[in-house]
Amino acid sequence: MGIFSKIKAALSKTKDAISFKLNKLFKGSVLDDDFYDELEMILLSSDIGATVTEQLLKDLKKAIDKKHIRKPEDVKEELRILMQATLDAHPLPRPPMPLIMLVVGVNGVGKTTAIGKLANRLSKANRRVTIAAADTFRAAAADQLTIWADRAGARIIKHAEGADPAAVVYDAIASFKAQKTDVLLIDTAGRLHNKKNLMEELKKITRIIEREAGDIAVVNFLVLDATTGQNAISQVEVFNEAIDIDGIILTKLDGTAKGGVVLGIVGELEVPVVYVGVGEGIEDLEIFKSNEFVEAIIS
Ligand code: GDP
């Protein structure tokens, strides 16, 4: 399967949930209040969220007025343009190498899998990858990560269960510098039920990174699970208290109808979705492309 069709295939349920309803609406004959009410209902029901729905409707009405659009079918192209602009408004500049990627997220969202897939992607692009197993709370976390590292051909730095995560990060950065590898991927714990401790731990890790990284670029990724829809948005807000999130890795886009949440995340929180998980396999991580997303939703 080609790259394009992988994302397209992953979005098939989202497409079924939104595209069909929109097309039905665009087949109507008048642009009246009922049209806008129905459009609002469709957008709200597709996990885009209230804030972005409201903004899209406002901008859409403005564009319709300005361009003297009279027919519902012509609204389709305007909506497509506005969705695309929303998604493209906050791009992540391509970071230089060497690079440290700090990866955070709640347990179960697919963080370990995402790190494994990322390591694999980078290795395949001839980048040398080091992984830091800084979720020392669960022994299984480092074990699972070791399996992914082996499969991806990456080095892994780990300590014993219960060790100080910041110490793992310290050692990993030293090793990363000494070995001159290209990318350091740092896994972290995700026990959100112990939110205060978790945030303190993340702050400590970012302090170590800041101190030890020197002029090496650092990108902070938050991993979110697309199947949780609007809940994913509240997780961004929680993690933003502790660290600056530069980009989102949105997992499990396959098999969910809630893919509309991409628009909610980018539009409401002004942070780009950079990678998307499209399956459980090591190859199932794609760079998010806004045009493919919009084409799937409005077709
Ligand atoms: P963690 O607790 O955040 O590290 O989560 P894991 O990486 O262990 O993943 C939790 C579950 O989600 C596993 O069963 C993964 O196979 C599954 N998973 C992760 N990413 C994806 C994805 O993109 N698509 C699908 N379908 N499943 C995924």
CATH class of one domain: Alpha Beta
Give the overall form: elongated
The oligomerization state is: single chain
Q: Give the number of DSSP strands.
A: 8
Class based on secondary structure composition and strand pairing: alpha/beta
The radius of gyration is 21 Å
> How far apart, in Å, are the first and last alpha carbons?
21 Å
Helical proportion, percent range = 40-55%
Average pLDDT across residues?
Answer: 94
Ligand species: guanosine-5'-diphosphate
* Number of continuous helical runs: 12
Q: Could you name the ranges where pLDDT drops below 50 across 5 or more consecutive residues? A: none
Features:
elongated, alpha/beta, binds guanosine-5'-diphosphate, 299 residues
Written description of the protein model:
The protein is α/β, with parallel strands linked by helices and 299 residues long. It has a domain at 99-245: P-loop containing nucleotide triphosphate hydrolases (Rossmann fold, 3-Layer(aba) Sandwich). It contains twelve helices and eight strands. Strands 3-2-4-1-5-6-7-8 form an eight-stranded mixed sheet, sandwiched between helices. Helix 10 runs parallel beside helix 11 (261-269). The mean pLDDT is 94. It binds guanosine-5'-diphosphate. Guanosine-5'-diphosphate binds at residues 105, 107-113, 190, 251-252, 254-255, 277-280, 284.
